[in-house]
Each structure stands twice: as structure tokens, then as C-alpha cells.
């Protein structure tokens, strides 16, 4: 008889995420072990407990989930967890701090439904945050040319350089969108815009995006009014306005939830999976097929 599925939740926050725990239950996990305020120095002991307790034949029935609001901290926890593995002694691990990977994957998949990303021109507004940088990385990985925008040209260029390093031979440039004029310039000639700004911040006016002749898909990830893209409703899911297809944050959220559940379930198919941005996107692609 197979052992129960155990998910070890390593969370950097004061309270381990209830959201992540509920999704884990809905993904068919039998038992969740929640650890909170986890720091890098704690990871080895926790992961060894997951690796060395059950025999090798049952290792795929235990997995690690890295979460918490601190995305940079989550990346460090993920790296510390994978550093514990050797040879076949490992368990599968997924990182989705602050929903960053699943949200970015859902946004880029929404765009891919309507635009062939290879060769497309994309703009990620407020692309310097964790969701925006992952969206830019995924778009670039699919062969799109990406403009990564920030209010600060320096921050945009730094983030674009970081994404370029992650995706060899990609075309990612930083652009400033500190004013509506700069935003209009950045948006001209693009096929896809993903707005990944902080909650409650409008990034582009309807007047500006409506004059973008080549624009085909607009995706806003901010669910808190005022929304990131004026004229997009939070519930929009493939709503068409003129030649443009619109998605709001909740419209994208359904796909995000499906990806999250499928990724957690995937952890238990083998003991050697490391699910970060690209792998989580690939899971999303398999759901669209
Ligand atoms: N649907 C979901 O399940 C889900 C999950 C996760 C996140 N989200 C949403 O996705 C969006 C992105 O998340 P995130 O964590 O990456 O966001 P974030 O780090 O909070 O912010 C992203 C960027 O927004 C820009 N920004 C911040 N304050 C601004 C202001 N006053 N005016 C203009 N720009 C401003 C900043 O860029 P610059 O300073 O470089 O301009 C920042 O890097 C958020 O709206 C979040 O709520 C949704």
C-alpha cells in the first residue's frame, strides 16, 4: 500500500500560508506539515527530515513547497532545499512565494492563447516586481521580444539584464514608463501588454492603449482598484474590445489556480522534480492542450 502524500510547507512568513495549505488539500495531499518563519539556516534540518525518514521507494510520496510573501527569500529557501539533495536521495520541490510563479505562468498562457509568442513584441508594465520579472522571463523563453518597464529606467535595465541572463539569446530591454508619454512610447508597436504593478496602481490609461494599432492582448494582474489598466474589468476573461482581447486579475486567476493545483499534484509523480517558473509554465501549457 502506498504511503500517504505529505507536503512539507516551508514558509518565510509569521504564519504559514492558509491559501497554499487549502490548495494543497484540494490537490489531493493527505498531510501538510507547516513550518513558518523559515530561514535558510533552518532548511537543511527540515529537508533532511523529509528525505531520510521514508525509504527510497516512497520518496515520491513526500514533497516540499516553498511559499511566503518574500519572493527573494523564497528563492533562497528553494536553493537551500535543492542543495540538500544528493544522488537519488531527494524529494520534489516547488516554489511559489507570493503566487509569483503560478500568476506569471497564467498571464503568459493567457497571452499565448491569442498571439504566437515567438517573434511577438511584448511589454511588461511594472516588470521589476517578482511577478513581472517572471512574466518577462517566460515571454522571452517563448521567443517574444520583451520591453520590461519601470518608473525608473535604471531599475528597468537592471531587471531586464537579470532576465536576459536567465534566458540565453533573449531580447529583453528595460524601458522607462514614469509618465503617460513614456508609457505610450513603450506601448507602441507591441502585440501584448501584461500589467504587473503593485495593487491599487493604474499604469496605463484607456486612451493610451486604444491608440496602439498592433495591440492584440491586454492582461492586468492587479485586482485592487484602481486597476492597473484603465478600461479592463477585474473579471474580464477574453472580453473583446475592438481588436483587443482583455483579461483582468480574476479572469487570469482561474488559470492560476488550475496551474497551482496541477503543479502540487505533479510533485508526487516522482521524487526528482524542481518546479520553478519554467517548469510551472510547462505544466500550465500541458493543461491548455
Ligand atoms: N491573482 C493572483 O493570485 C496574484 C498573485 C500574486 C500577485 N498578484 C498581483 O500581481 C501584481 C504584481 O505582483 P508583485 O508582487 O510582482 O508586485 P509588487 O512587487 O508589489 O509591485 C510590482 C511593481 O509595481 C511598481 N510599483 C509599485 N508602486 C508603484 C506606484 N506607486 N506607481 C507605479 N508603479 C508602482 C514597482 O515597479 P517600479 O518601482 O520599478 O516602477 C514594482 O516593482 C500585483 O498587483 C499583485 O497583487 C496577483
Number of strands: 12
Number of domains: 2
- Mind telling me the CATH superfamily name of the largest domain? NAD(P)-binding Rossmann-like Domain
Biggest beta-sheet profile:
7 strands, mixed
- Specify the CATH class of the largest domain: Alpha Beta
Q: What is the CATH fold-level name of the largest domain?
A: Rossmann fold
Q: What is the terminal separation in angstroms?
A: 33 Å
- Return residue spans where pLDDT drops below 50 for at least 5 consecutive residues: none
Number of helices: 10
Derived from helix and strand composition plus strand pairing, the structural class reads alpha/beta
Strand content: 15-25%
Given the C-alpha coordinates, what overall shape results?
Answer: elongated
Provide the CATH architecture of the largest domain. 3-Layer(aba) Sandwich
Based on the model shown, name its key terms:
single chain; 289 residues; alpha/beta; Rossmann fold; 2 domains; seven-stranded mixed β-sheet; five-stranded parallel β-sheet; 10 helices; 12 strands; binds NADP nicotinamide-adenine-dinucleotide phosphate
Q: What does this protein structure show overall?
A:
With 289 residues, the chain is of the alpha/beta class. It folds into 2 domains: 6-95, Rossmann fold; 103-252, 3-Layer(aba) Sandwich (Rossmann fold), CATH 3.40.50. Helices cover 41% and strands 20% of the residues. The protein contains 10 helices and 12 strands. The chain has helices at 18-26, 40-52, 71-83, 100-112, 130-141, 153-166, 180-187, 206-210, 249-267, 277-288; strands spanning 6-11, 31-35, 62-67, 92-95, 121-125, 145-150, 171-176, 192-195, 217-220, 237-241, 244-247, 274-275. The strands form 2 sheets. Strands 7-6-5-8-9-11-10 form a 7-stranded mixed sheet, sandwiched between helices. Strands 2-1-3-4-12 form a 5-stranded parallel sheet, with helices on both faces. α3 links the parallel β3 and β4 (92-95). α2 packs across α3 and α4 packs across α9 (249-267). The longest helix has 19 residues, at 249-267. The model has no long low-confidence stretch (mean pLDDT 97). NADP nicotinamide-adenine-dinucleotide phosphate binds next to α5 and α9.
